[in-house]
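Long-time lurker, finally posting.

We've been working with DUF5790 family protein (Halobacterium litoreum) and I want a structural starting point before designing mutants. I don't trust myself to interpret raw outputs, so I'm hoping someone here can both generate the structure tokens and explain anything notable. Sequence follows.
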Amino acid sequence: MSQSSLDDDELFGEAAEEMRADVEEHLDAARAELPEADAIWDVESDNTLGVLNALRSALDVGDVEAHLRDAKKAFVMGQRADAFEDADDLEADLEAIEGVLADIETAREQVGELASTVPELRSALDEAHADADDEDDE
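Top reply, 14 upvotes:
Generated this for you. Predicted structure of DUF5790 family protein:
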């Protein structure tokens, strides 16, 4: 084996290590941006709408998606270049964070729908009770 190919192999090995580190760094950054469990569990407010708005704010994912995208880009490049000896752990971490992100986004949408429905429901109930009171007065 010539000196040139050995240097190329060394360089490729270093590049593969750097690519793996890049994926891991972005995965760590994505995890750090996820909401804390207590932030969505311990929500305080004086009324239902306040709780829903606080919960919706707590479900903000910040830059999770951007970090996840960067991790996936580096992972795909490394995988296509066959740079990773064992990428199963990285792939599992990517899938886990994607799953949590999807769950958070679904929950945030549902909370948003409730936050817009609750005031409408309150108004409808107020009107229904006001109509009942008017009928009783007659």
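Before you design anything, note these points.
The two ends are 103 Å apart (CA to CA).
The CA atoms of residues 20 and 91 lie 11 Å apart.
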